[in-house]
Design goal:
Layout (H helix, E strand, L loop, with lengths): L3 E5 L4 H12 L3 E3 L11 H8 L8 E4 L14 H29 L2 E6 L12 H21 L4 E8 L5 H6 L2 H10 L8 H12 L10 E4 L12
Parallel strand pairs: 1-2, 1-3, 3-4, 4-5, 5-6
Helix pairs in contact: 1-7, 3-4
Length: 226
Amino acid sequence: MKKTLFLTGASGDIGGAIKIFFEQKGYTVIAPARKELDLARPESIAEYFEGRSFDIDTIIHCAGINDPQLLEDLTLENVQRTAQVNYMSFFEIVKYLAPSMKKKQRGHILGISSVYGTIGRRGRLAYAASKHALNGVVKTLACELGEHNIMVNALSPGFVETQLTRKNNSAEMIELLRRKIPLKRLASPEDIARVAFALCSDLNTYISGQDIVADGGFLAEGGQNS
């Protein structure tokens, strides 16, 4: 039977790679665009799901905001918007879609987190706080949904070759990070998509409540110091 994935953030490099990979594996992928589902606006989420019926097997939340600002420049609007998109919208979506999974007594839910859900970095207060919170949401949902055979995990990429990585880091910083990664390269979006599939397909029958780090050994090496 063909399975269905509900995916946010499909317009990004990682989300796009996840969408393609799951489609290649035979999944139907529902990936609403921002004009249909604006995760920064709670009312948009309510409007999108109201009156709709979904038969979902998998949820992957890949949408995210990362707008670096040092403390003296950081605005409350930045923190709130980052929180809303990166983790609050995630549990709002799960609340709408979990009933169909409970009915079938199976399912996989994945939040795309970050190594900054474990460590910090200058200028990443809003982003790191949101990813730490996302990991907490994942662990709690794993506790609440486990009895329905629904596995909930986080996937934390390290540094991925994406437009956002290039936007938020200088060429010199990216080269420094590359040297600090034991595999000596940034991940490709396809690398992350493969791990997402392993966690969200029938290959995963018992992993739940975990934060799976895919960083090429970056944290094992001690991470960066800047």
